[in-house]
Write a structure and sequence with these properties.
190 residues; mainly alpha; 5 helices; 3 strands
């Protein structure tokens, strides 16, 4: 049978504060709304935290401070403020070190991933180059065999530069314009 986890009571942790001597502090009621009919003196008094000894609060406080919030140290009954500050400083330093280590681990993982991708890309490029060289070698061997038999090798297509293509296109357009100049325009209305 699985063990039952001992969890701190989060709602009580947010509402109760433990003093250095182990007393419980809580906020007082009657300070949320409908404040206009209360005197300023009464409101000032209500805004202060009060020490509580109610059994429900004490019971919930035992559960609430059973575990710290994410490992954060809690003040104990005999603990001084200096001890608590030192414990908190150590906890903060450890949290920062853990965060820095997480960032380093993430950067290493990204670098490894990039290295793997680069290796795969290099393999693909190498395979492509080998395929192209094999094809070129096969074509050259076929041409050599055809020449050896006395057949004419395949005529290679002439390479036409972009400027020559542009000139041909301009000449074709000019020829079209010349053809349409001599013809009368006709309306196709029915």
């Amino acid at each position: 049978m699985a063990k039952i986890k001992m969890k701190s009571h989060k709602a009580s942790r947010k509402r109760i504060r433990l003093t250095a001597k182990g007393k419980l502090l809580r906020t007082q009621i009657n300070v949320r709304h409908l404040l206009t009919h209360r005197s300023p003196k009464r409101l000032r008094q209500l805004h202060k935290k009060t020490v509580t000894t109610t059994t429900g609060y004490v019971r919930r406080a035992r559960i609430a401070f059973l575990q710290g919030v994410a490992g954060r140290p809690n003040p104990g009954p005999g603990q001084t403020r200096a001890d608590l500050n030192a414990a908190r400083a150590a906890w903060v330093a450890k949290a920062k070190a853990d965060a820095a280590q997480a960032i380093i681990d993430q950067a290493k993982a990204l670098a490894d991933n990039a290295q793997v991708k680069a290796g795969k890309a290099a393999e693909k490029a190498k395979a492509k180059a080998e395929k192209a060289t094999a094809k070129a070698a096969a074509d050259a061997a076929a041409d050599a065999a055809a020449e050896a038999k006395g057949e004419n090798a395949k005529p290679k297509a002439e390479k036409v530069s972009k400027s020559e293509k542009a000139e041909k296109a301009q000449k074709a357009e000019q020829a079209d314009k010349d053809k349409t100049k001599g013809k009368p325009k006709t309306d196709k209305k029915s």
